[in-house]
Amino acid sequence: MSSLAQKKGVGAVIWDYMTTVDHKKIAILYLISGGFFFLIGGVEALLIRIQLMKAGNDFLSAGLYNEIITMHGTTMIFLASMPILLGFMNAIMPLQIGARDVAFPFLNSLGFWLFFFGGIFLNLSWFMGGAPDAGWTNYASLALASEGHGIDFYALGLTISGFGTLIGGINFLVTIINMRAPGMTYMRMPLFTWTTFVASALILLAFPPLTVGLFFMVFDRMFGANFFVVEMGGNTIIWEHLFWIFGHPEVYILILPAFGIFSEIFAIFSRKRLFGYTALVFATILIGFYGFMVWAHHMFTVGLGPTANAIFALATMIIAVPTGIKIFNWLLTIWGGSIKFSVPMVYAVAFIPSFVAGGVTGVMQAIAPLDYQLHDSYFIVAHFHYVIVGGVVLAILAGTHLYWPKMFGTMLSEKLGHITFWTFFIGFHMTFFIQHFLGLLGMPRRVYTFGADQGWDLFNAISSAGAAFMAIGVIVMLINIVITTVKNVRVGNDPWEDGRTLEWAIPSPPPFYNFAQTPLVRGLDTYWIEKMEGNKKGMVYAEPVGDIHMPNGSILPLIMSFGMFVASFGALYFQDDSKPWTLAVLIIGLAILFGAMLARSLKDDLGFYIKKEDLIEDAKRGGNTDGSK
Amino acid sequence: MMKGLTNWRLFALMTALLVFLAGCGREEISTLIPAGKVAQDQFNLLILSTAVMTFVIIAVSIIFVLAIVKFRRSKLGDDMIPEQVEGSAKLEFIWTAVPIVLLLILAVPTVYSTFDLADVTAMDSIDEEGNQENLTVNVTSYLYWWEFEYPEEGIVTAQELVVPTNERVYFNLISADIKHSFWIPSIGGKLDVNPENVNKFYLEFDKESALLDDGVYFGKCAELCGPSHALMDFKVKSVDREEFDQWVASMQEEVESPTDTTAQAGEAIFGPDGASCIGCHAVSGTGPAGMAGPNLATFGDRNRVAGFMEHTEENVKKWIQDPQQYKPGNLMPDGKSLNGGEEFTEEELDALAAYLMSLSVEE
Question: Rounded to two decimals, what is the model's pTM?
Answer without folding.
Answer: 0.94
